[in-house]
């Protein structure tokens, strides 16, 4: 079954604070008192042209959908899951043992989501957040029905848009953006040491893998979201540009469809897909109950591909997208493409 989602998504019961009225903005005196004595604060960040200041670590975090798990996964990796009061992110599975289950257990706020599968303005304000995380600026745009950064600021909440999400164009995203997300969250929550440890470990693992495959020929890899429709052609969810290309390069591969589009995704006919030489297939699962079946279907549909002849395919989820686990995607793809080097 095809999963149709709004284009911006495919690329996202009021709870009150005990000390304030629901939706009310804390007074300057109350805010100053709350931040008094907090070590490492204030922290100031510039994010998408907006300067935000934190006087203490946020304790009521809302994570918007954005067709991502980057923000929720990063918070969990940093040991900050208990700060989340509402999370709308889920891929349904993860390359990190236990992560999908941990995300499923996060509170959702019991929000009635809008047509973009995300939190509408009034529901957001009713959650009384002190920090809202959005993968792109789409989730903070009034014309999309969301609370704006000014709306949130008026009720004492900061907001943060993840790297490369400012202009809603993720085609320039790289693994370094995953590190920037960790680094920024580390500063916001005063856990920079933990963030830098995660970054250092990831860099080391990726470097070790890349060194093993550096001299190998780079196979052409098709990266595609399983059972997802984003356009009008038979294949509209092919990843053309973005973080997956950086991951492929580090794993000793190249994107077979990078020349077919200037944006993050390619929208192609079956004939165009059939004409490409696909040496290996990476299927990205986004809440698909059986992405392995989709991979088998593609290989059967295009038996002329070297990927089909060699039965070379792999299903990934959160590790191949923005987030704290890109090293796992690099390793798994490299082992598929260059098994003799491991």
**Helix-strand category:** alpha/beta
Low-confidence stretches: 1-37
Q: What share of residues are in beta strands? A: 15-25%
Average pLDDT, rounded to a whole number, is 90
Helix content range: 25-40%
Q: In total, how many beta strands?
A: 14
Rg measurement, Å: 21 Å
The total count of helices amounts to 13
Please summarize the sheet with the most strands.
4 strands, parallel
Pattern of helices and strands: EHHEEEHEHHEHEHHEEEHEEHEHHEH
What is the CA-CA span between the terminal residues? 37 Å
Widest sheet, order of strands: 5-4-6-7
Question: Any idea what the shape is?
Answer: globular
Please summarize what this structure is:
Helices cover 34% and strands 16% of the residues. It has helices at 7-10, 28-35, 70-77, 99-105, 121-126, 149-154, 175-188, 192-213, 243-250, 270-275, 291-301, 306-309, 326-337, and strands spanning 3-4, 43-47, 50-54, 61-63, 84-87, 131-134, 158-161, 220-225, 228-229, 235-239, 254-255, 265-268, 280-284, 313-316. Helix 3 (70-77) packs across helix 7.
Describe the overall structure.
It contains 13 helices and 14 strands. The protein has 342 residues and is α/β, with parallel strands linked by helices. A four-stranded parallel β-sheet has the order 5-4-6-7. The longest helix has 22 residues, at 192-213. The model is unreliable at 1-37 (pLDDT under 50).
């Amino acid at each position: 079954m095809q999963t149709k989602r709004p284009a911006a998504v495919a690329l996202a019961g009021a709870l009150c604070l005990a000390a304030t009225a629901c939706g009310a903005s804390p007074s300057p005196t109350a805010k100053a008192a709350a931040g008094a004595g907090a070590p490492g604060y204030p922290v100031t960040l510039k994010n998408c042209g907006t300067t935000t200041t934190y006087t203490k670590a946020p304790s009521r975090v809302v994570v918007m959908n954005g067709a991502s798990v980057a923000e929720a996964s990063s918070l969990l990796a940093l040991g900050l899951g208990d700060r989340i009061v509402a999370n709308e992110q889920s891929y349904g599975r993860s390359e990190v043992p236990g992560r999908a289950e941990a995300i499923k257990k996060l509170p959702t706020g019991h929000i009635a989501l809008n047509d973009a599968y995300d939190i509408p303005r009034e529901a957001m304000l009713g959650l009384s957040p002190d920090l809202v995380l959005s993968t792109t600026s789409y989730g903070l745009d009034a014309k999309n029905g969301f609370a704006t950064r000014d709306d949130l600021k008026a009720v004492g909440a900061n907001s943060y848009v993840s790297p490369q999400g400012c202009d809603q164009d993720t085609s320039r995203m790289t693994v370094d953006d995953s590190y920037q997300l960790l680094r920024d969250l580390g500063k916001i929550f005063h856990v920079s040491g933990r963030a830098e440890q995660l970054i250092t470990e990831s860099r080391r693992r990726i470097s070790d893998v890349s060194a093993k495959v550096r001299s190998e020929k780079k196979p052409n890899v098709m990266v595609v979201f399983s059972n997802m429709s984003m356009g009008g052609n038979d294949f509209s969810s092919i990843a053309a540009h973005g973080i997956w290309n950086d991951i492929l390069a580090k794993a000793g591969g190249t994107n077979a469809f990078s020349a077919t589009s200037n944006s993050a995704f390619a929208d192609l006919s079956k004939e165009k897909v059939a004409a490409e030489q696909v040496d290996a297939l990476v299927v990205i699962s986004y809440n698909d109950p059986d992405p392995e079946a989709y991979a088998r279907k593609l290989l059967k549909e295009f038996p002329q591909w070297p990927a089909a002849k060699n039965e070379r395919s792999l299903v990934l989820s959160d590790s191949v997208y923005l987030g704290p686990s890109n090293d796992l995607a690099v390793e798994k793809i490299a082992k598929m493409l260059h098994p003799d080097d491991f």
